[in-house]
Description:
Layout: E1 7-12, H1 20-33, E2 38-43, H2 45-52, H3 59-73, E3 80-84, H4 90-100, H5 104-108, H6 111-119, H7 127-141, E4 147-150, H8 155-171, E5 180-183, H9 212-220, H10 241-249, H11 254-262, H12 268-291, H13 295-323
Parallel strand pairs: 1-2, 2-3, 4-5
Helix pairs in contact: 3-12, 4-7, 7-8, 9-12, 10-12
Bound molecules: tryptophan.
Amino acid sequence: MVNSKKRILTGDRPTGALHLGHYVGSLANRVKLQNDYESYIIIADVQALTTHWDKDDHLRNDIMQITEDYLAAGLNPELSTIFIQSMIPEIHELTMYYAMFTMVNVLRHNPTVKTEAAQHGFKEMSYGFLGYPLSQVADISIFKANLVPVGEDQLPHIELARRVIRRFNELYKPVLIEPEALVGEVPRLVGLDGKSKMSKSLGNAIYLCDDARTVQDKVKNAVTDPARIHKNDPGHPEVCTVYEYHSVFNRPELEEIESNCRQGKIGCVECKKNLAVKLNNLLEPMRERRQQYNQAAIKDILMEGTRKAHAAALDTMAEVREAMAINYFDR
Ligand code: TRP
């Protein structure tokens, strides 16, 4: 029987270890959804070159690291097909077809691309950087994904995907699927320093691979209400990073923590210790799962996933070439 489950496609650039922000922003969703959807997870190594083209010697390690993080977080390779973007050349073929009817202005107005360009201090943009959202449209559509679980910064790319795919279907034949985005429960987790978001480059992250002691130390140094100097001073949870983390990772005790903090009944040290316990409770099963995979097993999972993904991509490309009437001579 044909598999009638709907499909998910999502993924990440391999740029280092995943942290709690990735987990609550999209990874937790993927783990949940893999039971009900046919799931494809792309490790976008070519997209990583848009900002790290001169640091390609990190890619192999980063690919292994992110795959280990996925498996630790609970992605099951029997349910989620994890694969490497550069090993599916048809993605780049499809990107080129899309490039023919996508206007440069549309790409130039992408707010996420603009923000990233500013973050990296790019005065000029490479063709690949400006165009990476279009390549992402190919990542999604070559698998005919219905749903794309992502962080909120990716929404402009999903909007582009809908637009480009709709256009393709009108121009040629309706063979492609317009996807929907699904944003995680906590679209943007603040960093431990209370500033902006949790991110590797800001040095304010707790990684899924951190050990228990490291988590305790990082939480100990997290920023709390600056107006609270003595343990008995009344606190202001609304400006406290640790409280914000409790609201994500420790819902059941939230009301109690809030009222104790406001009345100065619980000090920051105790409150942080409690949070570290809750975070370690979440991370401990991931640490155990991580132990189950050695490097050879991770590589096998990647190669098997890539083989399966490639077969699916070839099926779509046969339809795409037929729709565009560029399937000359029965190739
Ligand atoms: N742009 C995504 C990121 O930076 C990674 C990515 C590449 C992606 N292709 C994708 C995400 C397709 C969702 C769907 O994390």
